[in-house]
Inverse folding.
Protein backbone atom coordinates (compact mmCIF):
# COMPACT_ATOMS: atom_id res chain seq x y z
CA UNK A 1 0.00 0.00 0.00
CA UNK A 2 1.10 3.54 -0.23
CA UNK A 3 3.25 5.19 -2.86
CA UNK A 4 5.34 2.24 -3.91
CA UNK A 5 2.80 -0.40 -4.79
CA UNK A 6 -0.24 1.80 -5.27
CA UNK A 7 -3.47 -0.15 -5.72
CA UNK A 8 -2.08 -2.38 -8.36
CA UNK A 9 -3.09 -0.10 -11.15
CA UNK A 10 0.50 1.05 -11.60
CA UNK A 11 0.40 1.07 -15.34
CA UNK A 12 1.37 4.70 -15.32
CA UNK A 13 4.72 3.59 -13.94
CA UNK A 14 5.38 1.58 -17.04
CA UNK A 15 6.92 -1.85 -16.70
CA UNK A 16 6.09 -3.76 -13.47
CA UNK A 17 8.83 -4.26 -10.99
CA UNK A 18 9.53 -7.78 -9.78
CA UNK A 19 7.46 -8.57 -6.64
CA UNK A 20 5.00 -5.89 -7.51
CA UNK A 21 1.88 -8.21 -7.42
CA UNK A 22 2.98 -9.76 -4.23
CA UNK A 23 3.36 -6.45 -2.45
CA UNK A 24 -0.07 -5.47 -3.70
CA UNK A 25 -1.65 -8.65 -2.32
CA UNK A 26 0.15 -8.15 0.97
CA UNK A 27 -1.35 -4.70 1.14
CA UNK A 28 -4.84 -6.05 0.47
CA UNK A 29 -4.36 -8.71 3.14
CA UNK A 30 -3.31 -6.14 5.66
CA UNK A 31 -6.14 -3.77 4.74
CA UNK A 32 -8.81 -6.49 4.94
CA UNK A 33 -7.15 -8.16 7.93
CA UNK A 34 -7.06 -11.48 6.09
CA UNK A 35 -4.56 -14.22 6.98
CA UNK A 36 -1.55 -13.56 4.69
CA UNK A 37 -1.11 -17.24 3.76
CA UNK A 38 -4.51 -17.24 2.03
CA UNK A 39 -3.72 -14.42 -0.35
CA UNK A 40 0.04 -14.73 -0.57
CA UNK A 41 0.32 -18.47 -1.05
CA UNK A 42 2.70 -18.68 1.88
CA UNK A 43 3.73 -22.10 3.18
CA UNK A 44 2.07 -23.28 6.37
CA UNK A 45 3.85 -25.82 8.52
CA UNK A 46 2.01 -27.82 11.14
CA UNK A 47 4.31 -29.81 13.40
CA UNK A 48 2.43 -32.26 15.61
CA UNK A 49 4.43 -33.81 18.40
CA UNK A 50 7.73 -35.30 17.38
CA UNK A 51 6.54 -37.58 14.63
CA UNK A 52 4.17 -35.77 12.31
CA UNK A 53 4.36 -32.69 10.12
CA UNK A 54 2.17 -31.23 7.38
CA UNK A 55 3.42 -28.71 4.85
CA UNK A 56 0.63 -26.82 3.08
CA UNK A 57 0.93 -24.64 -0.01
CA UNK A 58 3.97 -26.52 -1.25
CA UNK A 59 5.28 -26.28 -4.76
CA UNK A 60 6.66 -29.76 -5.15
CA UNK A 61 8.87 -32.41 -3.68
CA UNK A 62 12.54 -31.82 -4.41
CA UNK A 63 14.19 -34.64 -2.54
CA UNK A 64 12.97 -37.55 -0.50
CA UNK A 65 15.06 -40.04 1.44
CA UNK A 66 14.28 -41.76 4.76
CA UNK A 67 16.55 -39.20 6.47
CA UNK A 68 15.76 -35.98 4.63
CA UNK A 69 12.83 -34.41 2.84
CA UNK A 70 13.21 -31.25 0.82
CA UNK A 71 10.06 -29.47 -0.23
CA UNK A 72 9.90 -26.43 -2.49
CA UNK A 73 7.76 -23.61 -1.15
CA UNK A 74 7.38 -19.97 -2.17
CA UNK A 75 10.56 -18.11 -1.40
CA UNK A 76 12.65 -21.16 -0.69
CA UNK A 77 12.74 -24.74 0.55
CA UNK A 78 11.57 -26.47 3.70
CA UNK A 79 14.08 -29.09 4.78
CA UNK A 80 12.98 -31.75 7.24
CA UNK A 81 15.59 -33.98 8.79
CA UNK A 82 14.96 -37.08 10.82
CA UNK A 83 14.86 -40.84 10.60
CA UNK A 84 12.47 -43.33 9.02
CA UNK A 85 10.66 -40.55 7.24
CA UNK A 86 7.65 -41.53 5.18
CA UNK A 87 5.21 -39.44 3.18
CA UNK A 88 1.92 -40.26 4.78
CA UNK A 89 -0.06 -38.34 2.21
CA UNK A 90 0.81 -36.20 -0.75
CA UNK A 91 -1.57 -34.07 -2.82
CA UNK A 92 -1.00 -30.98 -4.90
CA UNK A 93 -2.01 -28.89 -1.84
CA UNK A 94 -0.15 -30.51 1.03
CA UNK A 95 2.39 -33.08 2.07
CA UNK A 96 2.13 -34.93 5.40
CA UNK A 97 5.26 -36.52 6.78
CA UNK A 98 5.66 -39.09 9.50
CA UNK A 99 8.74 -40.40 11.23
CA UNK A 100 11.22 -39.36 13.89
CA UNK A 101 11.46 -35.65 13.10
CA UNK A 102 14.66 -34.03 14.30
CA UNK A 103 14.97 -30.65 12.61
CA UNK A 104 13.06 -28.41 10.27
CA UNK A 105 14.66 -25.43 8.56
CA UNK A 106 13.86 -22.96 5.88
CA UNK A 107 16.44 -22.36 3.16
CA UNK A 108 16.04 -19.13 1.23
CA UNK A 109 17.78 -18.35 -2.02
CA UNK A 110 20.02 -15.31 -2.26
CA UNK A 111 18.49 -13.53 -5.21
CA UNK A 112 14.95 -13.08 -6.57
CA UNK A 113 15.86 -15.12 -9.64
CA UNK A 114 16.09 -18.25 -7.47
CA UNK A 115 12.49 -18.06 -6.42
CA UNK B 1 -4.51 -42.80 4.37
CA UNK B 2 -6.77 -40.36 2.64
CA UNK B 3 -9.85 -41.08 4.67
CA UNK B 4 -11.76 -44.33 4.89
CA UNK B 5 -13.24 -44.49 1.45
CA UNK B 6 -10.16 -45.79 -0.42
CA UNK B 7 -10.54 -48.99 1.59
CA UNK B 8 -14.07 -49.32 0.30
CA UNK B 9 -13.34 -48.45 -3.32
CA UNK B 10 -10.03 -50.21 -3.37
CA UNK B 11 -6.42 -49.15 -3.59
CA UNK B 12 -3.27 -50.42 -5.23
CA UNK B 13 0.25 -50.63 -3.79
CA UNK B 14 2.76 -49.87 -6.50
CA UNK B 15 6.52 -49.96 -6.68
CA UNK B 16 8.07 -47.26 -8.81
CA UNK B 17 11.67 -47.66 -9.90
CA UNK B 18 13.91 -45.41 -11.94
CA UNK B 19 15.37 -41.95 -11.68
CA UNK B 20 13.69 -38.63 -11.04
CA UNK B 21 11.19 -40.18 -8.67
CA UNK B 22 10.50 -36.86 -6.91
CA UNK B 23 9.53 -35.18 -10.17
CA UNK B 24 7.36 -38.19 -10.99
CA UNK B 25 5.57 -37.75 -7.65
CA UNK B 26 5.07 -34.05 -8.39
CA UNK B 27 3.60 -34.81 -11.82
CA UNK B 28 1.22 -37.34 -10.28
CA UNK B 29 -0.14 -35.10 -7.54
CA UNK B 30 -0.40 -32.13 -9.89
CA UNK B 31 -2.68 -34.18 -12.11
CA UNK B 32 -5.01 -34.68 -9.13
CA UNK B 33 -3.95 -38.17 -8.03
CA UNK B 34 -3.14 -38.31 -4.32
CA UNK B 35 -0.43 -40.62 -3.07
CA UNK B 36 -0.19 -41.98 0.42
CA UNK B 37 2.03 -44.16 2.59
CA UNK B 38 4.99 -43.31 0.36
CA UNK B 39 8.26 -44.95 1.44
CA UNK B 40 11.66 -45.16 -0.12
CA UNK B 41 13.20 -48.55 0.59
CA UNK B 42 16.00 -48.04 -1.97
CA UNK B 43 17.47 -44.91 -3.58
CA UNK B 44 15.89 -45.81 -6.92
CA UNK B 45 12.63 -47.17 -5.55
CA UNK B 46 9.44 -45.64 -4.19
CA UNK B 47 6.53 -47.62 -2.80
CA UNK B 48 3.20 -45.80 -2.69
CA UNK B 49 -0.51 -46.36 -2.56
CA UNK B 50 -2.96 -44.95 -5.08
CA UNK B 51 -6.69 -45.30 -5.52
CA UNK B 52 -7.68 -48.20 -7.70
CA UNK B 53 -9.64 -45.86 -9.95
CA UNK B 54 -6.59 -43.60 -10.41
CA UNK B 55 -4.24 -46.38 -11.36
CA UNK B 56 -5.02 -46.43 -15.12
CA UNK B 57 -4.21 -42.69 -15.31
CA UNK B 58 -0.76 -43.34 -13.86
CA UNK B 59 0.35 -45.05 -17.04
CA UNK B 60 0.16 -41.80 -18.98
CA UNK B 61 2.35 -40.11 -16.33
CA UNK B 62 5.02 -42.75 -16.31
CA UNK B 63 7.51 -41.09 -18.64
CA UNK B 64 10.60 -42.85 -19.90
CA UNK B 65 12.61 -42.97 -16.71
CA UNK B 66 10.32 -44.88 -14.34
CA UNK B 67 8.69 -48.28 -14.32
CA UNK B 68 5.71 -49.51 -12.31
CA UNK B 69 4.96 -52.77 -10.68
CA UNK B 70 1.79 -53.57 -8.78
CA UNK B 71 2.62 -55.18 -5.46
CA UNK B 72 -0.88 -55.72 -4.14
CA UNK B 73 -4.49 -54.67 -4.39
CA UNK B 74 -6.84 -54.06 -1.50
CA UNK B 75 -10.32 -52.80 -0.72
CA UNK B 76 -13.90 -53.89 -0.73
CA UNK B 77 -14.20 -53.78 -4.51
CA UNK B 78 -11.12 -55.97 -4.89
CA UNK B 79 -12.40 -58.30 -2.19
CA UNK B 80 -15.79 -58.57 -3.87
CA UNK B 81 -14.09 -59.31 -7.16
CA UNK B 82 -12.06 -62.10 -5.54
CA UNK B 83 -15.15 -63.47 -3.86
CA UNK B 84 -17.08 -63.39 -7.12
CA UNK B 85 -14.42 -65.56 -8.70
CA UNK B 86 -14.86 -68.01 -5.81
CA UNK B 87 -18.63 -67.82 -5.47
CA UNK B 88 -18.94 -71.56 -4.91
CA UNK B 89 -16.76 -71.27 -1.84
CA UNK B 90 -18.72 -68.25 -0.59
CA UNK B 91 -22.04 -70.03 -1.10
CA UNK B 92 -20.67 -73.05 0.71
CA UNK B 93 -19.52 -70.90 3.63
CA UNK B 94 -22.88 -69.14 3.85
CA UNK B 95 -24.70 -72.47 3.70
CA UNK B 96 -22.39 -73.86 6.36
CA UNK B 97 -22.98 -70.99 8.76
CA UNK B 98 -26.71 -71.07 8.11
CA UNK B 99 -26.85 -74.80 8.77
CA UNK B 100 -24.64 -74.35 11.81
CA UNK B 101 -26.94 -71.66 13.15
CA UNK B 102 -30.08 -73.72 12.56
CA UNK B 103 -28.62 -76.91 13.99
CA UNK B 104 -27.24 -75.21 17.07
CA UNK B 105 -30.57 -73.55 17.78
CA UNK B 106 -32.20 -76.96 18.24
CA UNK B 107 -32.11 -79.36 21.13
CA UNK B 108 -30.38 -82.57 20.12
CA UNK B 109 -30.04 -84.66 23.23
CA UNK B 110 -32.11 -85.10 26.36
CA UNK B 111 -30.40 -86.92 29.19
CA UNK B 112 -32.33 -87.99 32.25
CA UNK B 113 -30.53 -88.65 35.51
CA UNK B 114 -32.79 -90.42 37.95
CA UNK B 115 -32.31 -92.74 40.91
CA UNK B 116 -32.93 -96.43 40.21
CA UNK B 117 -36.36 -96.35 41.85
CA UNK B 118 -37.72 -93.78 39.41
CA UNK B 119 -38.93 -94.70 35.96
CA UNK B 120 -36.75 -92.72 33.56
CA UNK B 121 -39.17 -93.30 30.73
CA UNK B 122 -42.01 -91.73 32.72
CA UNK B 123 -39.81 -88.71 33.44
CA UNK B 124 -38.89 -88.49 29.77
CA UNK B 125 -42.52 -88.67 28.68
CA UNK B 126 -43.51 -85.95 31.14
CA UNK B 127 -40.66 -83.84 29.77
CA UNK B 128 -41.89 -84.38 26.21
CA UNK B 129 -45.34 -83.16 27.22
CA UNK B 130 -43.65 -80.10 28.73
CA UNK B 131 -41.97 -79.41 25.38
CA UNK B 132 -38.57 -80.93 26.10
CA UNK B 133 -37.69 -83.28 23.26
CA UNK B 134 -34.95 -83.59 20.62
CA UNK B 135 -35.70 -81.26 17.74
CA UNK B 136 -37.34 -78.63 19.90
CA UNK B 137 -36.06 -75.09 19.40
CA UNK B 138 -33.87 -74.08 22.34
CA UNK B 139 -35.56 -70.69 22.58
CA UNK B 140 -38.87 -72.37 23.28
CA UNK B 141 -37.64 -74.39 26.26
CA UNK B 142 -38.47 -72.88 29.60
CA UNK B 143 -36.66 -74.87 32.29
CA UNK B 144 -38.94 -73.61 35.06
CA UNK B 145 -42.10 -74.73 33.27
CA UNK B 146 -40.59 -78.13 32.44
CA UNK B 147 -39.70 -78.66 36.09
CA UNK B 148 -43.17 -77.54 37.15
CA UNK B 149 -44.80 -79.94 34.72
CA UNK B 150 -42.71 -82.86 35.97
CA UNK B 151 -43.72 -82.09 39.54
CA UNK B 152 -47.36 -81.93 38.54
CA UNK B 153 -47.33 -85.17 36.61
CA UNK B 154 -45.05 -87.25 38.80
CA UNK B 155 -45.81 -86.98 42.51
CA UNK B 156 -42.91 -89.32 43.25
CA UNK B 157 -40.46 -86.63 42.12
CA UNK B 158 -39.36 -84.48 45.02
CA UNK B 159 -36.88 -82.31 43.15
CA UNK B 160 -36.00 -81.72 39.54
CA UNK B 161 -33.52 -79.56 37.72
CA UNK B 162 -33.21 -78.89 34.03
CA UNK B 163 -29.90 -77.64 32.75
CA UNK B 164 -29.35 -76.65 29.13
CA UNK B 165 -25.78 -77.22 27.98
CA UNK B 166 -25.56 -76.12 24.39
CA UNK B 167 -27.70 -78.48 22.38
CA UNK B 168 -27.94 -80.95 25.26
CA UNK B 169 -30.45 -80.91 28.08
CA UNK B 170 -29.66 -82.58 31.36
CA UNK B 171 -32.73 -83.33 33.42
CA UNK B 172 -31.98 -84.48 36.95
CA UNK B 173 -34.70 -85.73 39.25
CA UNK B 174 -34.69 -86.99 42.82
CA UNK B 175 -37.19 -89.37 44.32
CA UNK B 176 -39.44 -88.31 47.13
CA UNK B 177 -38.25 -89.97 50.34
CA UNK B 178 -40.61 -92.72 51.43
CA UNK B 179 -41.85 -93.39 47.93
CA UNK B 180 -41.11 -96.83 46.65
CA UNK B 181 -41.83 -98.34 43.33
CA UNK B 182 -45.37 -99.01 42.14
CA UNK B 183 -46.94 -96.64 44.61
CA UNK B 184 -46.23 -99.01 47.47
CA UNK B 185 -45.49 -96.16 49.83
CA UNK B 186 -44.96 -97.37 53.37
CA UNK B 187 -47.35 -94.85 54.92
CA UNK B 188 -50.59 -93.34 53.79
CA UNK B 189 -54.36 -92.89 54.05
CA UNK B 190 -57.24 -94.36 52.19
CA UNK B 191 -59.17 -91.51 50.58
CA UNK B 192 -62.31 -91.38 48.45
CA UNK B 193 -61.48 -91.13 44.77
CA UNK B 194 -65.07 -90.07 43.89
CA UNK B 195 -68.22 -88.80 45.52
CA UNK B 196 -70.60 -91.37 46.97
CA UNK B 197 -72.53 -92.78 49.92
CA UNK B 198 -70.69 -95.46 51.87
CA UNK B 199 -72.56 -98.76 52.12
CA UNK B 200 -69.88 -101.03 53.44
CA UNK B 201 -66.44 -100.62 55.00
CA UNK B 202 -63.88 -103.33 55.72
CA UNK B 203 -60.83 -101.82 57.40
CA UNK B 204 -57.72 -103.99 57.32
CA UNK B 205 -55.31 -101.44 58.78
CA UNK B 206 -55.66 -97.86 59.88
CA UNK B 207 -58.24 -95.78 61.71
CA UNK B 208 -61.64 -95.29 60.01
CA UNK B 209 -62.66 -91.64 60.00
CA UNK B 210 -65.83 -92.14 57.90
CA UNK B 211 -68.72 -94.52 58.60
CA UNK B 212 -71.32 -96.48 56.67
CA UNK B 213 -74.09 -94.11 55.53
CA UNK B 214 -71.78 -91.12 55.25
CA UNK B 215 -71.81 -89.05 52.12
CA UNK B 216 -68.22 -88.49 51.15
CA UNK B 217 -66.64 -86.31 48.54
CA UNK B 218 -63.64 -86.91 46.37
CA UNK B 219 -60.36 -86.54 48.25
CA UNK B 220 -61.90 -87.02 51.68
CA UNK B 221 -59.90 -89.25 54.05
CA UNK B 222 -61.83 -92.44 54.79
CA UNK B 223 -59.24 -94.42 56.74
CA UNK B 224 -56.36 -92.56 58.34
CA UNK B 225 -52.82 -93.81 58.36
CA UNK B 226 -51.82 -91.47 61.16
CA UNK B 227 -51.41 -93.36 64.43
CA UNK B 228 -51.94 -90.32 66.64
CA UNK B 229 -55.63 -90.10 65.69
CA UNK B 230 -56.35 -93.14 67.85
CA UNK B 231 -57.51 -92.99 71.39
CA UNK B 232 -55.48 -95.90 72.67
CA UNK B 233 -52.50 -94.97 70.56
CA UNK B 234 -50.04 -94.45 73.40
CA UNK B 235 -48.87 -98.02 73.25
CA UNK B 236 -48.14 -97.81 69.54
CA UNK B 237 -46.49 -94.45 69.18
CA UNK B 238 -44.03 -94.30 67.69
CA UNK B 239 -44.73 -97.09 65.22
CA UNK B 240 -42.33 -99.44 63.54
CA UNK B 241 -38.99 -97.82 63.03
CA UNK B 242 -39.94 -94.84 65.11
CA UNK B 243 -42.45 -93.42 62.60
CA UNK B 244 -45.96 -92.52 63.79
CA UNK B 245 -47.64 -93.56 60.51
CA UNK B 246 -48.82 -96.74 58.96
CA UNK B 247 -50.17 -97.83 55.62
CA UNK B 248 -53.96 -97.72 55.85
CA UNK B 249 -55.75 -100.42 53.93
CA UNK B 250 -59.49 -100.82 53.49
CA UNK B 251 -62.26 -101.77 51.10
CA UNK B 252 -64.91 -99.07 51.04
CA UNK B 253 -67.99 -99.88 48.98
CA UNK B 254 -70.18 -96.94 48.12
CA UNK B 255 -73.15 -96.05 46.01
CA UNK B 256 -71.91 -93.82 43.22
CA UNK B 257 -73.94 -92.01 40.59
CA UNK B 258 -72.89 -91.36 37.04
CA UNK B 259 -74.78 -89.14 34.68
CA UNK B 260 -73.91 -88.81 31.03
CA UNK B 261 -75.44 -87.43 27.90
CA UNK B 262 -75.67 -89.07 24.49
CA UNK B 263 -76.98 -88.16 21.07
CA UNK B 264 -77.45 -89.68 17.64
CA UNK B 265 -78.68 -88.35 14.29
CA UNK B 266 -82.04 -89.42 12.84
CA UNK B 267 -80.59 -89.03 9.39
CA UNK B 268 -77.75 -91.32 8.55
CA UNK B 269 -75.07 -90.12 6.21
CA UNK B 270 -73.52 -92.82 4.15
CA UNK B 271 -70.09 -92.27 2.64
CA UNK B 272 -69.73 -94.00 -0.70
CA UNK B 273 -66.25 -94.07 -2.27
CA UNK B 274 -66.03 -92.89 -5.85
CA UNK B 275 -62.71 -94.57 -6.50
CA UNK B 276 -60.80 -91.33 -7.07
CA UNK B 277 -57.82 -90.81 -4.80
CA UNK B 278 -54.99 -88.35 -4.29
CA UNK B 279 -51.75 -88.55 -2.36
CA UNK B 280 -49.59 -86.21 -0.37
CA UNK B 281 -46.13 -87.06 0.99
CA UNK B 282 -44.92 -85.57 4.22
CA UNK B 283 -41.33 -85.64 5.46
CA UNK B 284 -41.19 -84.67 9.12
CA UNK B 285 -38.09 -84.12 11.26
CA UNK B 286 -38.78 -83.07 14.81
CA UNK B 287 -41.17 -80.12 14.67
CA UNK B 288 -40.40 -79.38 10.99
CA UNK B 289 -42.49 -80.72 8.15
CA UNK B 290 -41.93 -80.72 4.43
CA UNK B 291 -44.98 -81.66 2.41
CA UNK B 292 -45.23 -82.57 -1.28
CA UNK B 293 -48.61 -82.63 -2.91
CA UNK B 294 -51.81 -80.64 -2.53
CA UNK B 295 -52.35 -79.17 0.92
CA UNK B 296 -56.04 -78.72 0.17
CA UNK B 297 -57.89 -81.52 -1.41
CA UNK B 298 -59.66 -81.05 -4.71
CA UNK B 299 -62.42 -83.30 -3.38
CA UNK B 300 -65.45 -81.87 -1.61
CA UNK B 301 -65.69 -84.91 0.69
CA UNK B 302 -63.04 -87.48 1.34
CA UNK B 303 -61.70 -89.98 3.85
CA UNK B 304 -58.10 -89.41 4.82
CA UNK B 305 -55.65 -92.15 5.74
CA UNK B 306 -52.15 -91.66 6.99
CA UNK B 307 -49.55 -94.28 6.42
CA UNK B 308 -46.09 -94.07 7.92
CA UNK B 309 -43.77 -95.36 5.22
CA UNK B 310 -40.53 -95.03 7.11
CA UNK B 311 -39.48 -93.78 10.50
CA UNK B 312 -36.05 -93.36 12.05
CA UNK B 313 -35.27 -95.12 15.30
CA UNK B 314 -35.60 -91.88 17.26
CA UNK B 315 -33.83 -92.08 20.58
CA UNK B 316 -31.79 -89.00 21.35
CA UNK B 317 -31.90 -87.54 17.81
CA UNK B 318 -35.08 -85.97 16.42
CA UNK B 319 -37.21 -88.64 14.78
CA UNK B 320 -37.39 -88.42 11.00
CA UNK B 321 -40.59 -89.74 9.47
CA UNK B 322 -41.92 -90.13 5.98
CA UNK B 323 -45.63 -90.56 5.72
CA UNK B 324 -48.13 -90.68 2.92
CA UNK B 325 -51.54 -89.12 3.27
CA UNK B 326 -54.07 -90.79 1.03
CA UNK B 327 -57.43 -89.17 0.39
CA UNK B 328 -60.26 -91.24 -1.04
CA UNK B 329 -63.09 -89.22 -2.48
CA UNK B 330 -66.56 -90.08 -1.20
CA UNK B 331 -70.07 -88.92 -2.01
CA UNK B 332 -72.52 -88.47 0.82
CA UNK B 333 -75.91 -90.09 0.74
CA UNK B 334 -78.48 -89.23 3.39
CA UNK B 335 -80.91 -91.83 4.62
CA UNK B 336 -83.59 -91.49 7.27
CA UNK B 337 -83.29 -94.04 10.08
CA UNK B 338 -85.54 -95.62 12.62
CA UNK B 339 -86.03 -93.58 15.82
CA UNK B 340 -85.62 -96.63 18.05
CA UNK B 341 -82.26 -97.40 16.51
CA UNK B 342 -81.16 -93.78 16.91
CA UNK B 343 -82.25 -93.76 20.55
CA UNK B 344 -80.39 -96.99 21.19
CA UNK B 345 -77.25 -95.49 19.67
CA UNK B 346 -77.59 -92.36 21.81
CA UNK B 347 -78.04 -94.46 24.97
CA UNK B 348 -75.09 -96.60 23.97
CA UNK B 349 -72.94 -93.48 23.50
CA UNK B 350 -73.87 -92.22 26.95
CA UNK B 351 -73.18 -95.67 28.46
CA UNK B 352 -69.79 -95.78 26.86
CA UNK B 353 -68.91 -92.49 28.47
CA UNK B 354 -70.06 -93.73 31.85
CA UNK B 355 -68.12 -96.95 31.37
CA UNK B 356 -64.97 -94.98 30.77
CA UNK B 357 -65.34 -93.26 34.14
CA UNK B 358 -66.22 -96.31 36.25
CA UNK B 359 -63.69 -98.24 38.26
CA UNK B 360 -63.01 -101.89 37.60
CA UNK B 361 -65.36 -104.13 39.55
CA UNK B 362 -68.13 -101.58 39.54
CA UNK B 363 -71.63 -103.09 39.64
CA UNK B 364 -74.68 -101.37 38.18
CA UNK B 365 -77.56 -101.13 40.63
CA UNK B 366 -79.97 -99.07 38.60
CA UNK B 367 -80.10 -97.27 35.29
CA UNK B 368 -82.48 -94.46 34.27
CA UNK B 369 -82.74 -93.19 30.72
CA UNK B 370 -84.40 -89.83 30.09
CA UNK B 371 -85.12 -88.84 26.48
CA UNK B 372 -84.43 -85.14 26.12
CA UNK B 373 -85.21 -84.73 22.44
CA UNK B 374 -86.60 -86.90 19.67
CA UNK B 375 -85.10 -84.93 16.83
CA UNK B 376 -87.77 -82.24 16.66
CA UNK B 377 -85.44 -79.34 16.09
CA UNK B 378 -82.31 -80.49 14.31
CA UNK B 379 -82.84 -84.15 13.52
CA UNK B 380 -80.85 -85.53 16.47
CA UNK B 381 -82.18 -87.58 19.39
CA UNK B 382 -80.73 -86.77 22.79
CA UNK B 383 -80.79 -88.82 25.99
CA UNK B 384 -79.48 -88.55 29.49
CA UNK B 385 -78.47 -91.78 31.26
CA UNK B 386 -78.17 -91.98 35.02
CA UNK B 387 -76.45 -95.04 36.48
CA UNK B 388 -76.31 -95.91 40.13
CA UNK B 389 -73.34 -98.15 40.74
CA UNK B 390 -71.77 -99.89 43.68
CA UNK B 391 -68.01 -99.79 43.75
CA UNK B 392 -64.90 -99.51 45.87
CA UNK B 393 -64.12 -95.83 46.13
CA UNK B 394 -61.06 -96.21 48.35
CA UNK B 395 -57.74 -95.06 46.96
CA UNK B 396 -54.41 -95.06 48.67
CA UNK B 397 -52.72 -91.73 49.15
CA UNK B 398 -49.16 -91.77 50.46
CA UNK B 399 -47.90 -89.61 53.29
CA UNK B 400 -44.74 -87.77 52.36
CA UNK B 401 -42.24 -87.09 55.08
CA UNK B 402 -41.66 -83.43 55.61
CA UNK B 403 -44.43 -82.39 53.22
CA UNK B 404 -46.16 -79.25 54.24
CA UNK B 405 -49.08 -79.13 51.79
CA UNK B 406 -52.37 -78.82 53.66
CA UNK B 407 -54.29 -81.47 51.75
CA UNK B 408 -54.84 -83.88 54.59
CA UNK B 409 -52.21 -86.33 53.46
CA UNK B 410 -49.35 -84.16 54.49
CA UNK B 411 -48.02 -84.53 57.96
CA UNK B 412 -45.33 -82.55 59.61
CA UNK B 413 -43.54 -84.43 62.31
CA UNK B 414 -43.69 -81.36 64.53
CA UNK B 415 -47.45 -81.70 64.78
CA UNK B 416 -47.20 -85.01 66.54
CA UNK B 417 -47.36 -85.30 70.29
Amino acid sequence: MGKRGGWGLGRSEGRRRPGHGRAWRAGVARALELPPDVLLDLPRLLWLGGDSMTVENHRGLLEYTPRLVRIRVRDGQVVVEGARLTIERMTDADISLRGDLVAVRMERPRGPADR
Amino acid sequence: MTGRWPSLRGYVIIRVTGTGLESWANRVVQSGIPLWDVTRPLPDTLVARVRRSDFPRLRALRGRRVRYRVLDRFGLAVLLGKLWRRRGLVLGAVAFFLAFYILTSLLWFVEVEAPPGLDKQAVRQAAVRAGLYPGQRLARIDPASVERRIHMELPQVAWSSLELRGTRALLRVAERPGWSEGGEAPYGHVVADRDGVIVQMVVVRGEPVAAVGDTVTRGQVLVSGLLSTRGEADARIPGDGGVPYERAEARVLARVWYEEYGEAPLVEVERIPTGRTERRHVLAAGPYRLALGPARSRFAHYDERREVRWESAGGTLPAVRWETVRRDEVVLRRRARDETAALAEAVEAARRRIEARRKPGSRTEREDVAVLSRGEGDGRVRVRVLVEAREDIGAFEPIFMGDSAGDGSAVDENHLP
